[in-house]
UniProtKB/TrEMBL annotation:
It comes from Eubacterium ramulus. InterPro entries: HMP/HMP-P_kinase_dom, PM/HMP-P_kinase-1, Ribokinase-like. Residues 11-254 form the Pyridoxamine kinase/Phosphomethylpyrimidine kinase domain. This is Hydroxymethylpyrimidine/phosphomethylpyrimidine kinase. The keyword Kinase applies. GO terms for molecular function: ATP binding; hydroxymethylpyrimidine kinase activity; phosphomethylpyrimidine kinase activity. Keywords: ATP-binding, Kinase, Nucleotide-binding, Thiamine biosynthesis, Transferase. It is an enzyme of class 2 (transferase).
Amino acid sequence: MKKVLSIAGSDCSGGAGIQADLKTFSAHGVFGMSVIVSVVAENTSRVIDIQDITPDMIEKQIDAVFEDIEVDAVKIGMLSTPECMKAVAKKLLQYKPQNVVIDPVMYAKNGCPLMNPTAVSTLIDTVIPLADVLTPNIPEAEKIADMQISTVSDMEAAARKIYAMGCKAIVVKGGHHIGNAVDVLFDGENFYHFETSRIDTKNTHGTGCTFSSAIASQLAKGKSVPLAVESAKAYVTMAIEHSLAIGKGCGPTHHFYELYQHGLSKE
Ligand SMILES: Nc1ncnc2c1ncn2[C@@H]1O[C@H](COP(=O)(O)OP(=O)(O)OP(=O)(O)O)[C@@H](O)[C@H]1O
Ligand SMILES: Cc1ncc(CO)c(N)n1
């Protein structure tokens, strides 16, 4: 069985973060592991507080996994401060895992900040160059590329600009756009567009976590980057179609075995 590690924050309400990652891994039939970087007291409506795990403890969790288990892919989510980023980057440079998917989480769906704004330069200098696939949403891509994004060609321009920062491929996600949900992948050579109709729901908490974890799962199983992104887009679309009206705010995506079994090939 392929083994995939999530390095991310914990969402106690279960819809995003480490919890969404582990559910996505299970639905893909890969063995999920987790290194917790921050504990977030949050729900579908708001973030109440964040407690970062110490850099030393982040490093020790990563050591515990890598000294014992062969890791086929890593998904990285919320890294709230430069200190957390540096601890994770140091260990990635030490263990050099394959198939690193980085979701540069800055805000929750309800608009609450999850990354300290002063950490953007550390994200660019130390984290982005470690990504095989980077998956910013539009507001994140705007911050990283320092430009406004209003059209699909702006998404392409931002993808080029961020690619030049050292990641091997980038997907600018179109969940925050209007009209169809278009994601733009750039691998340094080609652009690929993955487009679906926009699903009319407010229950999109954790879509980005679901998408990046699905990409990591598919890369672990040997798919190329474009095929892994295509399949992850199909997975997250189904997970949004079946999303749950849980809580008072933006409800979570749904991961269930039947969805995987009937909707996607098991491979
Ligand atoms: N309403 C929607 N209908 C169809 N697809 C959507 C919708 N919202 C998001 N998506 C898709 O979900 C995936 C995640 O994109 P999105 O931009 O929502 O990520 P995100 O903002 O990082 O998510 P989050 O921060 O909640 O984890 C993308 O493939 C995007 O196209
Ligand atoms: C812990 C965590 N990571 C990521 C997100 C982004 O949705 C969230 N809301 N919470």
